Amino acid sequence: TCETNIGKGSTVVEKLTMFSDEKRELAYNLIQGVPGFITLASNHWQVVKVGENQSKIVMNVTMHMKQFSGFFLGGIITKQMRKQVKIVQDELKIYAETGSVSEAKKRQIIKCCKKYGN
Question: For residues 49 and 52, what is the distance between their CA atoms, to the nearest angstrom?
Answer without folding.
Answer: 8
